Amino acid sequence: MSVTSKSIHVKNIPHAVPQVEDFETISEEINIEDENLLKENELLIELQYVSVDPYLRGRLQTFHNNVVQTLGIAKVISSKNKNFNKDDTVTGVFPWKQYSVTDGKTIQPATKDLIAGNKHIDKTLWLSTLGMTGMTAYQGLFEVGKCEEKENVLVSGAAGAVGMVVGQLAKKVKNCHVVGIAGTNEKCQHLIKDLSFDSALNYKDYNNNSKLLQADLKKAFPNGIDLYFDNTGGFITESVWDLLNKNARVLICGQIANYNHINNIPKIDDFLFKLIYKHIRVEGFIVYDFKNHEEFYKNMLKWVNEKLLVSKETIVEGFDNIPKAFIGLFSGENTGKMVVDCRIKK
Amino acid sequence: MSVTSKSIHVKNIPHAVPQVEDFETISEEINIEDENLLKENELLIELQYVSVDPYLRGRLQTFHNNVVQTLGIAKVISSKNKNFNKDDTVTGVFPWKQYSVTDGKTIQPATKDLIAGNKHIDKTLWLSTLGMTGMTAYQGLFEVGKCEEKENVLVSGAAGAVGMVVGQLAKKVKNCHVVGIAGTNEKCQHLIKDLSFDSALNYKDYNNNSKLLQADLKKAFPNGIDLYFDNTGGFITESVWDLLNKNARVLICGQIANYNHINNIPKIDDFLFKLIYKHIRVEGFIVYDFKNHEEFYKNMLKWVNEKLLVSKETIVEGFDNIPKAFIGLFSGENTGKMVVDCRIKK
Lengths: 346, 346
Known about the structure:
Two copies of one chain form a homodimer. Chain A has 346 residues and is α/β, with parallel strands linked by helices. Chain A folds into three domains: 2-127, Medium-chain alcohol dehydrogenases, catalytic domain (Quinone Oxidoreductase, Chain A, domain 1, Alpha-Beta Complex), CATH 3.90.180; 132-284, Rossmann fold (3-Layer(aba) Sandwich), CATH 3.40.50.720; 293-341, no CATH class. The first copy, chain A, has nine helices and 14 strands. The first copy, chain A, has helices spanning 109-117, 132-144, 161-173, 185-193, 210-220, 234-238, 267-277, 293-305, 322-328, and strands spanning 2-10, 23-31, 43-51, 69-79, 89-95, 99-102, 152-156, 177-182, 199-202, 225-230, 244-252, 281-284, 313-317, 337-341. In chain A, the strands form four sheets. In chain A, strands 9-8-7-10-11 form a five-stranded parallel sheet, with helices on both faces. In chain A, strands 5-4-3-6 form a four-stranded antiparallel sheet. A two-stranded antiparallel sheet of chain A has the order 1-2. Chains A and B meet through strand 3, helix 2, helix 3, helix 4 and strand 11 of A and strand 3, helix 2, helix 3, helix 4 and strand 11 of B.
C-alpha cells in the first residue's frame, strides 16, 4: 500500500521570532507494505504526537535544509527489530515525518513497558508530566534545588510545561508556599484553581518594570523567597534578587524571554543563559557561615608547620596608620594580608 | 601608671574611596594599674596587630562617630576573668584602641591555646593564613567549591589575603592548574615564584577590556576553567563566563571592584554582590544531565496514578500545524505542555 508521508524541514534559519514560512513541508510516497522497506534491525513507525519545546529555538540551525527532530510518541507499524513489535507505542526522538524507518536507537527504552502497563494514562502525558518537561521539573526542584518542606517557592513560566509540574510538586509533595508568574489572567486563575498554587501574578500587568513586580512579589512572599525556579529570565528574574532569603537557590532552567533576541541582550541575561547548557553553579558565600573550625585549624596548622603554605603579609607600622593601611587595600597596596603592627614601643 | 591610649573613630561616612580625613584619632588617659579599672570578669588588653579587610568598607557607617572594631591580636595586661591570664595572646574582634577593657566575649576561644602551642609561628599568621582570610579561602575552595584533584582554577585578587591562600591550596593540596590575576607585575612574579602558581596575569594590562583579557585567559587555560574563585568582580569576572567548563563552579567571595561605587554599578555586578551576604546559589541545569530515571518514573507515576498531579496540555491538531504550534510557544499560546496530535485520520 503506497501512502503519502509528509515531513517538515527548516528552510530558513530565523533571526528573531520564527515564522511559519521558515518551515517547508515535503511529501513523498512510501509503500508501507513493501517487504524490502526494512533491513534487519529496522522498524517502521507512524508518528502520533510531537512535543514542541522552547529549547528547539536554539537548535533550529542544526536542521537547516533538513527534517526537524524532536521528542514524540510513535506507533510501530512493522518491525525487523527484536526489541519492538507491531503496535507498540514508543517515545523517543523522531523526525517530523509521518512515517519513518528507524533503527530504534533514538527510542527511549524505559518507557515502552511503562506505557503498556499504564494504558489508562493519556498518552500525551509521556511527553509532559511523565516526559522530558516533567523530568526537568523534578530534577530542578528536588535534585538541583534541594527543595525542603514548607519553603517559599516562586516559579516563572508557571503555566508552561515545566512550571506547572514544578509548582504542583512544591505545593503537593513538599507543602511549600508556591507563587506562579504567567502571562494571562486565565493562566493565573488556572494555576490557583486547578493546580493549587497559593497565588499567581500576570507579568503583563507590570509593563517590564521590575520594581513594580517586585512590590507585588513582596506581598505574595511575606517570608521572602527560598527557591526561585526560573523559566523565563528578563525583568521577571531581575525583580527577584532583592527578595531572596539566606541560602536561597535560583534554578536557571529556561530563559525564554531572550531566545528570540540575537542582539542587545543585557549582560546579566546573557550570563544567566550561559549557565544552563554547561550546568554552571555560581555561589556567593561568607565566612560567618563556616562551621568546620576544628578541621580548618587541624589541616591548616599542619600545612603551615610543614611549610607547604607560604604566608605573605604586608605589615604597616604604627597605630596611627591603621586608616591609611585600610584605604591602601582599594589601590592594591598590599601583597597578601594587610596587617597593622600597632604594638606600643616602650 | 597613667598612659595615653589612642583610639580611631569614623568621623565621616565616605561616599566613594575612603580618605584618611574620614577618620579621627582621639586620645584618653588610662591608669592601667588602677585596681578598680576592671570589674569581675573583665580584662585589660593591649592591641598588638590589627587586620584591615575590604569587607570593612561596607560596615563603616555602623561605626559613624564611634570607634571602629575589626579583627586583631591583643595581649592580656591584667585579668579578672578566669578564662584569661596576664600575658595571654588572644585573637578576636577588638576596637581600634591601644588599651581596652573587655568582658572577653569578642575573643575567639579556639585560638588562645593554639597560639600558645605554636610559638614558632609568626603571630600575624593568626590574622592571615590561620585567620579569617585563610578560613575564607579554605571554605570557598573546599566546602563551597568542592575543588577536585587537577582541576583548572582561576583566582582573581590572587595576591590578596584570600587569593594567595586559595591558589596555594589548589596547587599544593589538590594539584590543580592554577592561574592568578593581580594588579602589578611584581605581584604576578610573586605568585609564580614564591607561591607556585602556574601563571599570572596583570589585569592592568587590559584597560578594562574583558575581550582582551579573555583571549589571554584562554591561552592560560587550554582545557578551560573548572573553578573560578572571584575576589574582585568587574571586567575580570565578565571575561570568565565563556571559558567555563561543564559543571564549573564560580565562587563569589568578594567584589572589591565595586565596593567604592555607589551609583552606576552594572546590573550584573550588583547581582553578584548580592549573592555574597545571603550565601545564594544560582545554578543552571539541563535535563540531559539527569540520571535518576528510575526514581523519577517510580515517584511520578505514583503521583499521577493517585491523581495528585494534574496534567494540563495544549493539544494542537494536525501534522501540518507543527510549526505553528512551535511558534506559539513564544507568544505564550500554550497552557501546560504544547503537544501536536499528528495521528493520520484513516
